[in-house]
Amino acid sequence: MLEQNNLASSSILDQPAEACFPLPVNLHQQQFETLLIGNNRILELILQGAELSQILQEIAKFMENLDPRCRSTILLLDEDSQILRHAVGPSLPEAYRNAIEGIHIGPDVGSCGSAAFRRQMVISRDIRHDPLWAKYLDLAAAFDLRACWSIPIMASQGQVLGTFAIYFKTPLTPTDYDLRNIRGAAHLAALAIEHHRSRTTLEKNERYYRLLVEHSCDAVCLLDHQLRSIYSSPNGAPLLGYPPYFMIGKSVLEIVHPEEHEYVSAVAKDLDGAADTVRLIRVRVRNASGEYRWLEASIRKAPPTIAPDAFVVNWRDITEKKLFEEKLMRGEQRYALATKAGKAGILELDLAGQRAYVDPNIWQILDLEDPGEISLNEWLQAIHPEDQLQVAALLDRIQRRQSDQFELELRLLNRQGGTEWFYFNGSVSQTAGAGLQIIGTGTQITQRYQYESQLRLQREELTHAARLSTLGELVASISHEINQPLYAIANFANALNASLNHPPDTKAACAEQHSKLRHWARQIASQAERAGEILTRLRNFARKKTQELKPLDPRKVILDAVKLMLPEARSRSVEISVFAPVKLSRIMGDAILIQQILANLLQNAIEAESARTSLTDEQGINVTVSEQDGHVRIEVRDHGAGITAEQLSQIFQPFYSTKPNGLGLGLAISLTIAQSLGGKLWAEPCPDKGAAFFLALPVCEE
Q1: How far, in Å, CA of 234 to CA of 210, rounded?
Q2: Cα distance between residue 345 and residue 337, in whole Å
Q3: What residues does 241 pair with on adjacent strands?
Q4: β-strands 621-628, 576-579: how paired?
Q5: Which site from 24, 156, 212, 585 is most exposed, i.e. has the minimal number of CB atoms within 10 Å?
Q6: What is the DSSP string of 372-417?
Q7: At what angle do helices 446-473 and 666-676 cross, to 10 degrees?
């Protein structure tokens, strides 16, 4: 088929297959011999493995010998970039070769670029009038090139490998003989290029194979049916300290431990009739130093077409691995004993798969059978209903990636319907292609929890006793404080009774008496309410209660504590001043316990103030409240004798007191209470006179 773009300029031809240079029957004897010799010469070079550049150069020169008017060139196509690279062009000027180096193929890129793009032969009879050469007319004219016949070099699988082209200095149309020669040259070039690429790939693969075999941690050997070594990779014997190929011709049983001869022979016998079976064995083998090393070997029958009645063996030294496995096994045994003795076990939760694995030790503690892997919901059902909410909240935080560590205490239900306390802690991980995994340990803490509960009750008893002790110290001032409203009530009642015993004579006097009676009644009610408030504060402060944490208004808690201590302060002529901002964040705590701390600090400050021997400009107790660093800070400052450095280091120790008759428990208990509320309690000496005690309590989270 002939597609003519311009009859006077170019044609695109289909490309029938040609076997090397064709040998037409009507050739003269000399032409026939020339083609035959050229074909054979080029084929010999290909078979001899000559360099590709030499073969392509030979093809180009041969074409030029056939027609001295032409100049030949071969370009190779870079498949990735789709550009043509210069390979050979013995008669073309170097400047021209450089100019066309690296051109991109396309439908109108001269003869070669178009031939590679169209995958068809392109005949440019007259370059000056060929539209395919429109972009390169000046280039062709500069080197006096007028005609170009180009053919794509096609691989056996249909890929374009490059182009073969011949140029002429005059416009020229090819004859059938010319076309057959061009196609033959392209076919020879394709053979050379594919052979070169196959040989290059084979050599590269051989290098890789040698690299893998000679430098692999594994060794390969071929054994005959009597277990004698036929072949061994170069690294085989040296891995055991022997010279290379030391075992060739020897039976491997010579170095296998005697106790395992029968085992190795039995494996070989089993594999003798099993072509596709692979056996993995571990045996001890003696090295050059006489030491036995552990080897792991995979054995299978060799393909009968390659090595009949032979075995292919891949092996490696696993002595260190074996020792590590034994060490790991001993460690696992010790861990199992430790967890069983320590009443602990592993917990694994797969949040993506909704599965759970609970250590058998935990089920044993609960007197339940080990169910193996269970669903996440089944695990949650094993938790006490009152604790399921905190577990669900923890899982929610983990799934929202707000936590990658966890610890919690909860109760698990046992067979008898009772509970066992456990402490769980661990971490969260996520591997590629898997969901969130929770891995941790659980330890039974039932006895510890019971002990801590008893300790907590004892601490509450001690705290309550300390509050009662504080009330005992305040009894005189409190009774005086209560007596005042009682005296007032009695006086107003007497006046009211006396007035009722002397009824008025006139209407005006009656109205005046009625007004007085109403005033005295209001005073009686007011004083009774005042006495009731005092008794309520005392009852709340003195009652025995369990610690109860809830959001509190710090101003109210502080003012209630100050009101409790005001009678004692007044009885000793000490003033208490409170400085607090109008707006304060709420704190999480127990009002009575916080008041107990403040009452203790205020009592100590009152005693320090009343014990002063000299008057100064600064006197009285200042209670200053501020908020900083997520805490409400309460400062109780007096202007007494102050605290020495030695006292400061011991003042919070139990049974240490600076008072002659003090027990030394007030500040120690206050410190314990502050810490149980998540707060801090400390003291600082004042630069001039007195001491300052600070209580910091965390604010509530929104």
Answers
A1: 9
A2: 11
A3: none
A4: parallel
A5: 156
A6: -SEEHHHHHHTB-HHHHHHHHHHHHHHHTTS-SEEEEEEEEE-TTS
A7: 130
For the segment 400-404, the average pLDDT, to the nearest whole number, is: 77
Buried (b) or exposed (e) across 75-86, using 16+ Cβ within 10 A?
bbbeeeeebbeb
Picking from 683, 684, 679, the residue whose alpha carbon sits closest to that of residue 696 is 679
- Asked if 145 contacts 37 with a C-beta cutoff of 8 angstroms, the reply is no
CA distance 136 to 619: 107
Q: Are 293 and 319 within 8 A, CB to CB?
A: yes
Residue-wise pLDDT for 625-640, tens only, equals 999 888 999 999 988 8
By the 10 Å C-beta count (0-12 exposed, 13-18 middle, 19+ buried), 642 is classed as middle
Three-point CA angle 342, 346, 348, nearest 5° = 165
pTM above 0.90? no
Give me 55's structure tokens. Answer: 């073969």
Distance CA 589, CA 597 (A): 12
The tokens 């039932």 sit on which residue? 446
pLDDT for 639-658, tens place per residue? 887 877 777 777 777 666 66
CA 338 to centroid of chain Cα atoms:
30
Q: DSSP labels for 168-214? A: ESS-----HHHHHHHHHHHHHHHHHHHHHHHHHHHHHHHHHHHHHHH
682, containing H or E segment: strand 680-685
Note whether 658 and 604 are within 8 A (CB): no
Nearest-angstrom CA–CA distance, 360 and 35:
88
Token pair in block for residue 438: 């929770």
Q: From start to end of 521-675, where are the E strands?
A: 550-552, 576-579, 587-589, 621-628, 631-637
Helix (H, G, I), strand (E, B) or coil at 641: coil
Residue type, 532: G
Q: Are strands 10-13 and 2-6 parallel, antiparallel or unpaired?
A: antiparallel
Rounded Cα gap, residues 312 and 229, in angstroms: 10
